[in-house]
Amino acid sequence: MPLDLGWLGGVRVNLSAAERRVAGLPGRRTVKKDAQAAWLLKAITCIDLTTLSGDDTEGRVRRLCAKAVTPVRHDLLEALGMSERGITTGAVCVYHRFVAAAVDALQGSGVPVAAVSTAFPAGLAPHDVKLREIEASVADGASEIDIVITREHVLTGNWQALYDEMRDFRAACGAAHVKAILATGDLKTLRNVARASLVCMMAGADFIKTSTGKEGVNATPLVTLVMLRAIRDYHERTGSKVGYKPAGGISTAKDVLNYQILMKEELGRPWLEPDLFRVGASSLLSDIERQLEHHVTGRYSAFNRHAAG
């Protein structure tokens, strides 16, 4: 849709009300036993299993892909009555360098490959270089592209520049889904987060995402609430559903349950499915599998028995 500066001008965030909302979340909602196991299995299908380290190798990426296809041990799934459900993670997320290897490793599994792009994580390369990187990842088989916006556009209030940038990224992605990383820890205010969320949605983002995982502050429930309210507002005005992806610092089953509950309460049941909800994580899967083993056996196991890759 066209950039609507009037809409942006009316954006407000009630900080104290938002803080009260998220502070009360863990105490008001809880799931236990079979219900908790079901929520955690659903969370697995929404994980973008990620490796974004400077020492990544093709071997590490291929091991991660194997874990994405079989994220939970067969004996645990059998005990839960889920062995025939074909549970996999939502995607595998890697640098462009490893897209082709990941696509090859995941062939026939139905698990898509997401590539971080546009000079991730800082996003400060020339614009044409960012577009070529997107196109190269799509050519190598990535079906999802996680782009990073230019934070300066937000910090200086240059919403037209942000809109134009996002439109170019959307066009370069072609048929691939595009997730817009706002790097919320760099945006200074919740009002900036809300406005940047709306601009990226107006410009065609399929998902809005909190963080690269490299900022000083990454995903938080407070930022999540603001972004979910922006998604809800956008859906109510346009009828278009945009997905949400928190990333960075979500490492325990308890963490992801809180995000799932917030998604359900703010946006509704459809936003608990992987086409509208993803979680960028690396160690989260290990803790979920550990909690599922405790549910089945009554005993906690060591983390090293649940390696992510």
From TrEMBL:
Family matches, as Gene3D superfamilies: Aldolase class I
EC top class named in words: lyase
EC number: 4.1.2.4
CDD domains referenced in this protein's UniProt entry, alphabetically: DeoC
UniProt-recorded Gene Ontology molecular function terms: deoxyribose-phosphate aldolase activity
InterPro entries assigned: Aldolase_TIM, DeoC, DeoC/FbaB/LacD_aldolase
Cited SMART domains: DeoC (SM01133)
Catalytic reactions on record: 2-deoxy-D-ribose 5-phosphate = D-glyceraldehyde 3-phosphate + acetaldehyde
Pathway in which the depicted protein is active: Carbohydrate degradation; 2-deoxy-D-ribose 1-phosphate degradation; D-glyceraldehyde 3-phosphate and acetaldehyde from 2-deoxy-alpha-D-ribose 1-phosphate: step 2/2
Family, similarity comment: Belongs to the DeoC/FbaB aldolase family. DeoC type 2 subfamily.
Protein name: Deoxyribose-phosphate aldolase
Species assigned in the record: Mesorhizobium liriopis
Lineage: Bacteria, Pseudomonadati, Pseudomonadota, Alphaproteobacteria, Hyphomicrobiales
Name of encoding gene: deoC
